[in-house]
Amino acid sequence: MAYVSQRVYLFFETKKAHLLVRSDGTRWLKCMHFQRHMITAIVDCNSRRCTRSLRHPRECRLPTCLQNFGDEIQRDIDKVDEYCFACRAAQARAARDAAAASSS
Prior knowledge:
The chain has a 4-stranded mixed β-sheet with strand order 1-3-2-4, with no helix packed on it. The protein has one helix at residues 85-103, and strands at 2-4, 19-28, 34-43, 69-80. It has 1 helix and 4 strands, in the order E-E-E-E-H.
């Protein structure tokens, strides 16, 4: 994984400081879910208050420092005009339950 400087993405400067993950994956167009295939980069927030940033002091143990990744930057490498696997399973389950309820 590569670390990318915040300066490349100027529109993130106004957001709350978090490390951002950039990933490639499939976009399922009927439900708009994103299926991640791989993480291509980690965008450093350059914040001394974020434990995942390269600028965070190693000796810092303050509980007030941010400890989670921020938003995921999703890049669609392919698009499928269908529901994702989870949505198809949920639809099949709902149809099965409806059929069982109507037969009893």
